[in-house]
Amino acid sequence: MLLAEPLLRWLGDSVMQAAEKLMGLILTAVAVQMLLSGIRSYYGL
């Protein structure tokens, strides 16, 4: 947390926006995988 501002200045806004979008995509993929695993487990597939 202490290095957030210097890191933001060093990387720049566009790199941080790209990193945020990538992390969102990864989080969505993990959520979908967990959902599908739960459905498979529930139905015994």
From TrEMBL:
Please state what the protein is called. Answer: Putative antibiotic transporter
Q: What is the protein's species of origin?
A: mine drainage metagenome
Which UniProt keywords are present, listed alphabetically? Answer: Cell membrane, Membrane, Transmembrane, Transmembrane helix
Q: Does the keyword Cytoplasm apply?
A: no
* Spans traversing the lipid bilayer: 22-43
Listed GO cellular component terms?
Answer: plasma membrane
User: Chief subcellular site?
Assistant: membrane
The protein's matches in InterPro entries, at most eight in alphabetical order, are given as: Multi_antbiot-R_MarC
Where is this protein found?
A: Cell membrane
| Topological type in the membrane | Multi-pass membrane protein
- What family is this protein classified in? Belongs to the UPF0056 (MarC) family.
Pfam (any one):
MarC
